[in-house]
Amino acid sequence: MAKRTDSETMSKHIRDTLRTDILDGRWEPGARLQLTHLSEHYDTSSTVIREALTRLVGDKLVTLRPNKGFFVPELSLAELTDIVEMRCVNEQLALSLGFERAPLEWESELMAAHHTLERTPRRSDEDPDNHTPEWNHAHQKFHDKLVEACGVPLLTEMTRTLSDLIQLYGRWAGPATRDAKRDLDKEHRDILNAALDRNAELAGQLLRAHYETTLSAVKNGGEVGLACLPHVKLLR
């Protein structure tokens, strides 16, 4: 039983590391993920790598092409519009269910997640064009906490998958996204206050505006960052 637990722990660790590296842009969209290279890089067996990649296929962060192997997904800004709409609809449903079901301690946990988000540096001097991994993590935790009280695992898993895909697009949209005229801190504070008031309609509207502003920034940034990648189809 211990060996099985160790094996499961290793598999999850490799899967989580691969997920983080894909979202951080270690490989370009459309790049092939070679088992031999990855097993050497992560110092593990090709069996563990294959299992991790197969799980990430289910999360839509890896594409499996028959007889060709595993690849980082190719990006299409036209598809991104649909992804954002799906996320808005799913999270609005999750909020309406969650605000009715959430216990009081959920509010404290949400405020703590927001506090961490506000106190985490968004950019660094070393890489000023992209959000820091720490901020991305805190941002995801805040949005996860918003919807988790719905108590529907399939719904929360779907919102997390959509969130990952949007983060992947944002990573490759380039430096133009940092010039978007918005106050992210205020957007998150407004969403927090609506959630604490259990106002599902307002919180849903604010989340939609939050995501659609990001969508516009990624589209605009695509002209700078995504256009240089041969795999990306720009939305016109």
TrEMBL record:
Family matches, as InterPro entries: GntR_C, TF_FadR/GntR_C, Tscrpt_reg_HTH_GntR, WH-like_DNA-bd_sf, WH_DNA-bd_sf
Keyword Phosphoprotein (UniProt): no
Location of the HTH gntR-type domain: 8-75
SUPFAM superfamilies membership: GntR ligand-binding domain-like (SSF48008), Winged helix' DNA-binding domain (SSF46785)
A Pfam short name: GntR
Keyword field contains DNA-binding: yes
Keywords assigned by UniProt, alphabetized: DNA-binding, Transcription, Transcription regulation
Protein name: GntR family transcriptional regulator
Taxonomic source organism: Glutamicibacter mysorens
